[in-house]
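Before drawing any conclusions, I needed to go through one protein's amino acid sequence and its backbone structure tokens, quoted below without any editing.
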Amino acid sequence: MTGHLHPALAELRRLSLITGNELDDATDELEILALDEEDDVDMPRLAAGAGPAEALAWLLRTDLLPQDDFLRRVQDLPRRHGGAALLERQQLAADALNMVNRQAIDTLYDEDLINQWQRDAAHASLPVDRLLASPIAALREMLRQGTMTAQQFEVLRTRQHGSELGRIIVDGAARQARRERPAYARPGTWVMAALLVLVLAFAGRAIVARQAPSPAAAPVTGQGVERPDLQQRAAHAVESARLPGASADLSITVVQDDATPPAR
């Protein structure tokens, strides 16, 4: 760090709201911006007379102070400070957060994406625990809060006029909305689900058909089944029981259950 130290940045460092490395990076950035004052590059600049809140907001807008680090640092303030020191730091952080979020909303108004009533309503309901780091994030926040309805957003998305920046903001918000949409609500999901159900139904029928048992063979009826061994035993019993002198004029056929005796 070789340049002049901005008083507001020095105050932020004294309050431990930024680190030494972040202070050095911010000072180097100010030196670069000072060399490019005549350029038309639209880069956020920190005014020489800016206070600590403006300086903190500038750091957040330029990402010299990452928003995750900033929010984590603010949440950790009660553990490190108390009393008036804590209130001073919390108020400074809240003011910077409000500045960044208001500017994101104001960009939507400047690009004719929202009207004055919507801008004022959005200003009145700015999040106090989140950073709207871009106009796209601000537009998504308005949709979540209901400050802008889905129908109003659809009008913006399909309108044929407007600035190039406005179109970029709307298209970016639409892409984020599609990514955040639940899977069951995305286009084509129901068609794929219906096709899957049909495939499973046909596969199930094929499996059941292959596993079904073959019908049992029906018993053969109408045909006598002769058993020679049983015939001999029956003939012997009859021979033993007949009267002496009687002729053995017998024909014995043994028939199993459910079989039809053969015709004689």
